Please model this.
Amino acid sequence: MTESHTPSSGSPVLNTGVAHNARVWNYWIGGKDNYEVDQQVGEHVAGMFPIIRDIARADRWFLGRAVRFLAEERGVRQFLDIGTGLPTGENTHQIAQRVTPGARIVYVDNDPIVLTHARALLNGTSEGVTDYVDADVRDPTAILQRAAGTLDFGEPVAVMMLGILNFVPDTGEARGIVRRVMAEMPSGSYLALTHPTFDAELGGEGQIPAMKFWNENATPPITARSGTDIAAFFDGLDLLEPGLVSCSRWRAEPETPAVVPQFGAVAVKP
Model:
């Protein structure tokens, strides 16, 4: 198992006086890697938009279902998890390596508190490889260059972009990031993506005032998008059933949880 998590020169400095997404998200899903300011902002947002905790949990459950599906049913042995966030009980490498002990996983994030927990993310199987790259989603070239030290881009890779492109405010830039990353992946690779929406059909109207409060009191700034804009991230790829749906409903069990205003989908590169 390799371990590599050297910070990049542009890594942000840990600021415990301002709420940060990775820590607030950790708070919403019941974690302990957060500070008082994260709890305060998290509680205020939850008061404005009570379903936010359901969104956080649904997004995490989507991760589990998507990784298991890709590893078990599609035979994927390599995962590039961009914007991984803080480690929890069931991380990408744990799920994938349970199916395929020799699976290779590269995590990417540039949150300093995530960096301090990188060693926990690297505690995988002896047969497999786990790695951590300290890089910003806005620098896909750096991500690809560093991930190539662990992943073989000649073989299919599952690119995970869960709840990360909402931190790229410019939609054109966000699409360019997806295109750049997926262009490097061979045929038979996959893109798994989740993204918050303001679409009324998923009950997303409440995201707007909550995100406004967030952007005034926490970092990094966040944006929701329409289902149409989110679907465009999959241009050139073939969506797998059931398509672009609330992430809580993607290949969910019969006792389907409630719809949440967070789209999710998995697509394959032809």
User: Anything to note?
Assistant: The chain has a mean pLDDT of 89.
